[in-house]
Amino acid sequence: MAFTRSSTGHSKPRIQLNISTEPERRRTAKTTTTTTSRRHGHMTAQPATHHHRKPHLKDKIQGAAKKLNGTLTRRPGKKAAGTRQMRGTDGKGSRAKRI
Length: 99
Fold this sequence. Notes:
Elements lengths: L4 H4 L25 E6 L2 E6 L9 H16 L3 H12 L12
Antiparallel strand pairs: 1-2
């Protein structure tokens, strides 16, 4: 048998919280980190981005195989290495000859 609040003696009014139902406002001003580099005799301000190369089809296939291998063997490091190779952020080709 179901009991109602009035029959159990707990008929106090329920407390209603004053919670605003309007959506939160988000900040529109975003802060960006800029780095300055000295190139060709003048200073330039550039946003801090992760350098990557253009991955070839070979890199995408090898990276997918590494990612699958890491997934199956439960090795998150190998999985991440495959993802980086697929995206071109693995650092391959970063040792360029300096003039």
